[in-house]
């Protein structure tokens, strides 16, 4: 610190630093400048990453939190800054991700002037954030602020984790701070999730163990709660001895290595065909850290009435939300799995007939995928791209998925090779535009030498293209892959299958063709455009070798879909893949080729 009088911005920055926060993602405003001044005096412990859009600050903080277990912190100013946060807050709330949003506010005594922006940018922010946060607080005084910061971190990290809004008025932010009168104290238990761990009663553990012993075709479904509990290693050890099927939700990908013979991949309509088929045949399903959402529950057709069930979750409200479990284990995932494993003891968990059935279905499904991944079709189909990405991914590299079809291509065609969170999916809301800002948060904490790889369709990529400038400014090692079909692909297929008409799904015309590689080049990144499958490898080699961020744009078939029901309906309605206009992008000499 310099000799300037400390202010409350210093107090907030110091408490964040002592709480283990390394980065704050956000956009400055006049009402929050004190915070940035406070951070500027502590850059050896905490740094601010300037985002281009407040909405994206929450996404970056979200990805940071998923990968570290620490609360992601974002900051915005009053009014137009604050009203952009809810998309990211809702993503974190629904996905149980710890986050603290520091939000500027007008001075306290301006309360009667907030209505209808009489005082510039004013509105009722507290009520607004109550709807999209785990909790929201308006700081009433300097003296209350330290305790509210501690409370925000405790609530954000306590079961069930989520985002907390801390709204700090301008006059409080700018007030003087005397550390002797108001010392800094933080709670080290709330530096990361889980805040506390618990174990179910021994009688419930014994009942669950008894169900497992009786099962002939057990299955384990792992959700994001496995990663939230840092339980992937323990869950993998348990799965190795279970002798049954294992699949995951999108958020749970990496709970076990998908190279294991029992691992069938992601259970989701756009996930693994093997997982969808095999889960129907299980006689016992253990739902581990999974809320059994619409997609993981296959539109709540799972579990089947004849299947016994065990639920493992630290949130009591999840046990019985969509079905009544045979045994409910209320506790921390890591500790509960360890207790269950111990109760089962040195058992012979092998089920040779079940394992043979798993191998049979996986072999059939893998053969079909291998054919797609070797395809020389033009326009390119995404499995071919996934095959080339998979060859280049290192053990420490991180993959950040955007919403819609991108999640399916990653889920089904890029296997998790080790236990742990290497894949980040925006599934709390499933909103477009997550991958580019999410990669900024991921790159901030990626291991030295690691790459962050994103995958987005052109529609999703368009949402947050401005944050490419942020990636370039900070020199982050990010490979952004855009699979460009010129459409909102999911919308187009939905309309064609169910309405026989396409409206407002086109993102280009013959005369106006956005070029994402060219835009990236203009923003300071390396930009590469690809049309032919044989050129994908060289493009990715160049992107992975580049010392900084890059964009690889690949023109793909606009009928390609990872959703199995869409593929079936396309066959039934004779919606065949069709050649697309071949568009040649040259970064210095733009030309549009005629139709193929």
TrEMBL record:
UniProt keyword list: Thiamine pyrophosphate
Thiamine pyrophosphate enzyme central domain location: 205-340
Residue ranges occupied by any Thiamine pyrophosphate enzyme TPP-binding domain in the UniProt entry: 406-554
One Pfam family matching this protein: TPP_enzyme_M
Keyword Cell membrane applies: no
Origin superkingdom: Bacteria
Thiamine pyrophosphate enzyme N-terminal TPP-binding domain sequence ranges: 7-125
Alphabetical list of InterPro entries matching this protein: DHS-like_NAD/FAD-binding_dom (IPR029035), THDP-binding (IPR029061), Thiamin_PyroP_enz_cen_dom (IPR012000), Thiamin_PyroP_enz_TPP-bd_dom (IPR012001), TPP_enz (IPR045229), TPP_enzyme_TPP-bd (IPR011766)
Family note: Belongs to the TPP enzyme family.
The name this protein goes by in its record: Acetolactate synthase-1/2/3 large subunit
């Amino acid at each position: 610190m310099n000799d300037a009088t400390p202010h409350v911005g210093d107090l907030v920055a110091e408490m964040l630093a002592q709480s283990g926060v390394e980065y704050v993602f956000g956009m400055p405003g006049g009402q929050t400048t004190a915070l940035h001044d406070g951070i500027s005096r502590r850059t050896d412990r905490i740094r601010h990453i300037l985002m281009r859009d407040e909405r994206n600050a929450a996404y970056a903080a979200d990805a940071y939190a998923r990968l570290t277990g620490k609360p992601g912190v974002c900051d915005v100013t009053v009014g137009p800054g604050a009203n952009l946060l809810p998309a990211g807050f809702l993503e974190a709330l629904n996905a149980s991700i710890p986050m603290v949003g520091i939000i500027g506010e007008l001075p306290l005594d301006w309360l009667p002037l907030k209505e209808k922006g009489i005082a510039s940018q004013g509105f009722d922010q507290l009520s607004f954030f109550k709807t999209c946060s785990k909790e929201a607080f308006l700081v009433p005084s300097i003296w209350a602020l330290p305790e509210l910061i501690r409370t925000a971190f405790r609530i954000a990290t306590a079961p069930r984790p989520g985002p907390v809004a801390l709204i700090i008025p301008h006059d409080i932010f700018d007030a003087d701070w005397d550390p002797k009168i108001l010392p800094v104290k933080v709670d080290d238990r709330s530096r990361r999730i889980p805040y506390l761990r618990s174990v179910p009663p021994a009688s419930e553990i014994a009942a669950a163990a008894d169900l497992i012993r009786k099962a002939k075709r057990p299955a384990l479904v792992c959700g994001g709660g496995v990663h939230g509990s840092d339980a992937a290693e323990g869950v993998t050890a348990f799965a190795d001895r279970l002798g049954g099927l294992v699949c995951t939700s999108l958020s749970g990908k990496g709970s076990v290595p998908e190279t294991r013979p029992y691992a069938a991949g992601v259970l989701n309509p756009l996930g693994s065909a093997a997982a969808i088929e095999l889960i129907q045949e299980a006689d016992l399903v253990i739902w581990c850290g999974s809320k059994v959402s619409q997609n993981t529950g296959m539109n709540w057709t799972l579990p089947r009435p004849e299947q016994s069930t065990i639920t493992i979750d630290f949130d009591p409200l999840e046990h019985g939300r969509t079905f009544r479990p045979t045994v409910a284990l209320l506790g921390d995932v890591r500790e509960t799995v360890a207790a269950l494993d111990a109760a089962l003891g040195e058992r012979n968990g092998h089920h040779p007939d079940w394992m043979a059935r798993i191998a049979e279905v996986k072999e059939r499904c893998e053969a079909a995928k291998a054919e797609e991944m070797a395809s020389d079709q033009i326009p390119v189909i995404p499995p071919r791209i996934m095959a080339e990405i998979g060859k280049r991914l290192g053990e420490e590299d991180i993959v950040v998925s955007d919403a819609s079809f991108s999640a399916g291509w990653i889920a089904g065609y890029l296997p998790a090779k080790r236990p742990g969170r290497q894949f980040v999916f925006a599934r709390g809301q499933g909103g477009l535009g997550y991958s580019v800002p999410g990669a900024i948060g991921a790159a901030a904490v990626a291991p030295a030498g690691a790459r962050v790889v994103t995958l987005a369709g052109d529609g999703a990529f368009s949402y947050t293209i401005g944050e490419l400038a942020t990636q370039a400014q900070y020199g982050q090692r990010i490979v952004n892959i855009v699979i460009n079909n010129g459409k909102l692909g999911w919308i187009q297929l939905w309309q064609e299958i169910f309405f026989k008409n396409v409206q407002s799904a086109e993102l280009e015309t013959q005369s106006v063709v956005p070029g994402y590689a060219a835009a990236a080049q203009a923003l300071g990144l390396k930009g590469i455009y690809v049309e032919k499958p044989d050129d994908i490898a060289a493009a990715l080699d160049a992107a992975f070798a580049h010392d900084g961020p890059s964009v690889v744009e690949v023109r793909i078939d606009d009928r390609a879909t990872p959703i199995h029901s869409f593929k079936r309906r396309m066959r039934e309605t004779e919606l065949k893949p069709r050649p697309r206009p071949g568009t040649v992008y040259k970064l210095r000499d733009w030309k549009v080729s005629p139709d193929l």
